[in-house]
Amino acid sequence: MKTLIQLEEAGMLLLAYVLSFVIGYEWWVFLVFLLVPDLSMLGYLFGTKTGAWVYNFFHFRTLAVAVGVAGYLISVPEVMLAGTILFGHSSMDRIFGYGLKYSDDFKHTHLGKIGEKLK
């Protein structure tokens, strides 16, 4: 099951990368900004509850889709790219087992504990 989930997430990451070309960006732009959503981990400076909320907000794919669609509707490529990067980044994280966080511990995610093998 873990492999199937990772393949599905890899497909979504690839889709996001291809969408960045469709929007009109060079191949390297997506890669440069791909880790920017991890700045949301700074929320953990204010405790695990705040950290989990901020992290989850920026790793919630519905937000990513909403930002991308909003960018399309207002014809702003930068906003479309931001949504695409949020979407792709969330998929990349899930490939490596980093899911949405519970408020008790950074390592406690909807995919299980980070560092423990999924069955």
Strand arrangement across the biggest beta sheet: 1-2-3
- Biggest sheet architecture: 3 strands, antiparallel
Q: What level of helicity do the residues show?
A: 55-70%
Radius of gyration: 15 Å
Number of domains: 1
Q: Strand share of the residues?
A: 5-15%
The total strand number stands at: 3
- Helix/strand order: HHHHHEEE
Number of helices: 5
Poorly predicted ranges: none
Structural description of this entry:
The protein is mostly helical. It has one domain (2-110). Helices cover 61% and strands 8% of the residues. Strands 1-2-3 form a 3-stranded antiparallel beta sheet, with helices on one face. Helix 1 packs antiparallel against helix 5 (77-95).
Secondary-structure map:
Elements: H1 2-23, H2 27-33, H3 48-58, H4 61-73, H5 77-95, E1 101-102, E2 105-109, E3 112-113
Antiparallel strand pairs: 1-2, 2-3
What key phrases describe this protein's structure?
119 residues, mainly alpha, three-stranded antiparallel beta sheet, 5 helices, globular
How is this structure best summarized?
The chain has helices spanning 2-23, 27-33, 48-58, 61-73, 77-95, and strands at residues 101-102, 105-109, 112-113. By secondary structure, it is mainly alpha-helical.
